[in-house]
Design a protein that fits this description.
Blueprint lengths: L16 E6 L6 H11 L3 E5 L2 H15 L4 E4 L4 E2 L6 E5 L11 E4 L11 H10 L5 E6 L4 H7 L4 E4 L6 E7 L8 E4 L3 H15 L3 E3 L5 H12 L5 E4 L13 E4 L3 E3 L4 E3 L2 H8 L9 E6 L11 H9 L8 E2 L10 H8 L8 E2 L5 H10 L2 H5 L4 H11 L9 H15 L6 H10 L7 H18 L8 H27 L2 H9 L9 E3 L4 E4 L2 E7 L2 E4 L5 H30 L6 E3 L2 E4 L2 E11 L2 E6 L8 H22 L1 H10 L6 H12 L3 E3 L10 H9 L3 E2 L3 E3 L6 H13 L14 E3 L7 E4 L2 E4 H16 L11 H4 L5 H10 L2 E4 L16 E4 L19 H10 L1
Parallel strand pairs: 1-7, 1-8, 2-5, 2-6, 3-5, 6-7, 9-16, 10-12, 10-13, 11-12, 13-16, 17-18
Antiparallel strand pairs: 3-4, 14-15, 19-20, 20-21, 21-22, 23-24, 24-25, 25-26, 27-29, 28-29, 30-32, 31-32, 33-34
Length: about 850
């Protein structure tokens, strides 16, 4: 087939007024276009970014109602039936002659090597029925006059001035600044440094999803952080409250080589500083190590005065190629421009993929006929969201074509591909890769000629992208934002008194809901994760606000001390809400300890400290009066001269040993009948082996006495929590009698002995059988039971062994009782070895 000869560009249909609104950034061009769109009965605006299309879509919906407004991008289509106003990306702009108004934003991108041919086509051929508006830089004016001579050129001045302020160190960059870098690595380094110096920064890069960029920008706009670190993507239409733009470098890699930015590119980025009537500044970052980090005087003049070299050509590519074959398609796409003002662009990614796949016989063999070639070209035009290059992207396109050439993609297949990416775990790079992949499937899913269940699959893909974007925003914020430092810098500067401080229920000290430390009892501790630079300010803020907070805690402590369960003991420490508020110290008497308030209470005012100390002492007195009432009664009686010296001495010993005293050498024999009667009236029981106060053997009482005994340097094993009948200990705890390797509670020991004497006295026999079952029910071993009986004056007599050749149960051991306890039990030596449990018992007793 002969090469297609260059032809004149096709003429747009008869149109109304065509206006070219040109000027630098911050001239209100986009705002004007939105006003004109809403003034017409229908219309469309094409934007260079999906992000901008979505932003303006929300604004127009608020004016016209969501049911009348459509959003059309490569990855998302919201098209209500009968929608009259359309917000689109340039590639997705509808070609409809019935629209009353059409606008093209950032029209100077017609000179962009990758996407310029699309903008050029829209600039030349897309028109509104009543009005067309071309928005762009003043550098586009010569091309407008040459290619669209009917256009009325309107130049708008910038609302604010832009001034160069030289180079600044990162630590000296003023708040509300944007730092512009030209690689992801440099962006991360700058953001990390700002996190250390200034509490963090929002991050904006072209590789982020629109939703993540929105979230990061919203964080900056809301004042959560005062700094923005971005690539040159920030220069494309994002309306930000930026006062200063700092360039980390003035060179970038454009995909082919490292080159210095043009003055137009510099101005596009620097123009983000200063919005509306607020002036802005720009400069470089000192010590950033970038390429060519200083502006030349000529560049400064050009940026400040908005004077740039005019565009001399726009990139063009055949917008309506023939689809007779793949070769014809490639030929038309590489055909020469029809006008001298137009130039052939460098090979774009879609054309590179097409040519790469055209060299594969299997692929070209599957492309036959006009409809098939056109469909194949649509597949090749899938954007390379992964940015992996033509060769890698062509492999993905090849696999996709194999599935699409026969018809539609199955819903199960698309759903599975989307589900595999639905994983919000991972680091920043992993999430960015997943978002890029899901954007490809969002583009695929919204094509009605590719996917049968278009609406459902599109919704799924958008939902996954939203979840991944939220996760990426969280990771970026977690890595590059120190909220505590940001709050401190924003709220107070150097004046700690301005910080709004409050205390959470958990004791955390918060500034705008960001923890700066916590209060433990009445001590303030700075958050250990706080930067060293913040500590002085945090302590100053705490000092200014702690008196009021501590007074409130003092009130809460006094209120808690009025309740029996409001405080608790941990060893000898008095604890409130897990914090020690006082400690017990040895007093003049065992039952009269002193209370020493914790040193942290010294931070309270004198009246509050006195009030808290009084409340703690009252709680301690009430607690002891409740749990130690029996011992307190003995202690009071021991100080009564009318009790007599013998009884007073015995009572003092009972108090000293926690209400339990061995009967031997207790002095009981020296008491007269009246004193014994008085002793019993105090609740003391006179047992066979011990004198004891049953009420003092309750767990709370015995633990309280043990705590006080430790203060008086009386070491004793800690009694069990529930005062079990039997414990295994080498030393008997308070309230227990030691029986070999076991210890039995003294009241239960008296119960066993009382039962033994009752059995003995209930028969006329001199020797009786004492069943150890009741002892075993208390978990007391038979050997320990025998030791208890021997301690009380019982002695054992083993039964005679059976004669030879006689069978039957052995005679059980029998016990008798000697009135004199001091006389030891006689040794019992059996005539011949006996067997059985009772024989073992006898041997233990003998030994």
């Amino acid at each position: 087939m002969a090469p297609r000869t260059p032809a004149s560009p096709r003429k747009p249909a008869a149109t109304g007024v065509v206006k070219a609104v040109l000027g630098p950034t911050n001239t209100g061009k986009t705002h004007l276009a939105i006003e004109r769109l809403c003034a017409h009965s229908s219309g469309a605006i094409g934007f260079p970014l999906r992000l901008l299309a979505r932003e303006v879509y929300d604004r127009v919906c608020a004016i016209k109602g969501a049911e009348n407004v459509a959003l059309i991008t490569g990855e998302e289509r919201i098209e209500p039936k009968g929608a009259r106003w359309h917000l689109c990306t340039v590639e997705a702009m509808p070609s409809r002659p019935d629209l009353a108004f059409v606008a093209l934003d950032e029209a100077q991108l017609s000179a962009d090597p990758e996407r310029g041919h699309v903008f050029t086509d829209r600039l030349l051929h897309t028109r509104g029925r009543e009005e067309t508006m071309l928005l762009g830089s003043s550098t586009l004016e010569p091309m407008i006059k040459a290619l669209v001579p009917e256009a009325e050129v309107v130049t708008r001045p910038r609302f604010s001035t832009l001034t160069h302020v030289g180079a600044k160190k990162l630590s000296r960059i003023p708040p509300r600044s944007a730092i512009v870098a030209f690689s992801a690595e440099q962006v991360y380094v700058m953001a990390e440094m700002l996190r250390r110096f200034r509490g963090g920064a929002a991050v904006v890069m072209g590789a982020l999803s629109p939703q993540t960029r929105n979230a990061q920008v919203a964080m900056y706009q809301a004042g959560e952080v005062d700094y923005l670190v971005a690539t040159d993507a920030v220069g494309m239409g994002l309306n930000l409250d930026v006062h200063h733009v700092a360039f980390a470098g003035l060179s970038k890699f454009d995909g082919h080589r490292q080159r210095r930015l043009t003055t137009s590119e510099m101005a596009q980025i620097a123009g983000r500083a200063g919005r509306h009537q607020r002036d802005g500044t720009f400069g470089t970052l000192a010590g950033a190590g970038g390429h060519d980090p200083e502006f030349t005087p000529e560049e400064i003049y050009a940026i400040e005065e908005h004077r740039f070299p005019p565009l001399t050509r726009l990139f063009w590519r055949e917008a309506e190629p023939r689809f007779d074959s793949v070769a014809t398609l490639i030929e038309d796409l590489e055909s020469l421009p029809p006008l001298p003002q137009l130039a052939t662009p460098p090979q774009a990614i879609d054309l590179a993929v097409l040519k790469h796949l055209a060299e594969e016989p299997e692929v070209t063999a599957s492309v036959r006929g006009v409809r098939s070639v056109q469909r194949f070209w649509d597949v090749c035009r899938l954007p390379d969201f992964r940015a992996q290059g033509a060769e890698t992207h062509s492999r993905f396109i090849s696999r996709l074509w194999q599935d699409l050439r026969g018809g539609y993609l199955g819903a199960d297949y698309v759903a599975q591909a989307i589900a595999q990416l639905d994983n919000p775990a991972g680091d920043i790079d992993t999430l960015q890769a997943r978002i890029a992949a899901i954007r490809s499937w969002s583009y695929i899913a919204q094509r009605p000629d590719w996917v049968l269940a278009k609406d459902e699959m599109s919704a799924r893909a958008r939902a996954v992208e939203a979840r991944l974007s939220d996760a990426l925003h969280a990771r970026l914020t977690e890595r590059f934002v120190n909220r505590r430092t940001a709050v401190l810098m924003r709220k107070a500067g150097a004046d700690a008194g301005l910080l709004p401080v409050r205390l959470s229920d958990e004791g955390a000290l918060l500034v705008d809901d960001e923890p700066i430390g916590h209060i433990e009892g009445f001590r303030f501790a700075v958050d250990p994760l706080a930067r060293a630079e913040d500590r002085k300010l945090l302590l100053a803020a705490a000092e200014r606000h702690l008196p009021g907070l501590l007074a409130a805690r003092a009130d809460a402590l006094v209120k808690a001390a009025a309740q029996p369960q409001g405080l608790a003991f941990e060893d000898t420490a008095l604890v409130w809400q897990g914090t020690v508020v006082a400690r017990l110290e040895r007093g003049r008497r065992l039952l009269e300890p002193r209370l020493r308030p914790d040193p942290a209470l010294d931070r309270l005012s004198a009246p509050n400290k006195a009030r808290v100390t009084s409340a703690l002492e009252a709680w301690l007195a009430a607690h002891h009066a409740h749990v130690l009432a029996p011992l307190l009664a003995l202690d009071q009686a021991s100080r009564d001269p009318a009790s007599g010296p013998e009884l007073r001495a015995l009572l003092l010993h009972l108090v000293e040993f926690g209400g339990v005293l061995a009967r031997d050498d207790s002095g009981l024999d020296r008491l007269d009948a009246m004193q014994r009667k008085q002793l019993k009236s105090l609740g003391v029981r006179i047992g066979s082996l011990d004198l004891f106060l049953p009420a003092a053997l309750r767990p709370a009482a015995i633990h309280a006495w043990h705590r006080l005994a430790r203060l008086c340097a009386r070491p004793a094993p800690l009694p069990p929590e529930a005062m079990q009948p039997v414990v295994h200990a080498r030393i008997a705890p308070a309230g227990y009698r030691r029986l070999g390797h076991e210890s039995l509670r003294v009241d239960l020991a008296e119960k066993l002995l009382h039962a033994a004497h009752r059995t003995r006295m209930g028969t006329k026999a001199r020797r009786v059988f004492l069943d150890p079952a009741i002892a075993r029910s208390m978990n007391l071993s038979t050997a320990a039971y025998a030791a208890l009986l021997r301690s009380a004056g019982f002695r054992v007599h083993m039964g005679r062994p059976l004669p030879e050749k006689a069978y039957g149960p052995p005679q059980p051991p029998l016990w008798d009782w000697r009135p004199s306890r001091s006389q030891p039990a006689p040794d019992i030596v059996p005539q011949r070895p006996a067997t059985g449990a009772f024989a073992a018992l006898a041997e233990l007793v003998v030994r």
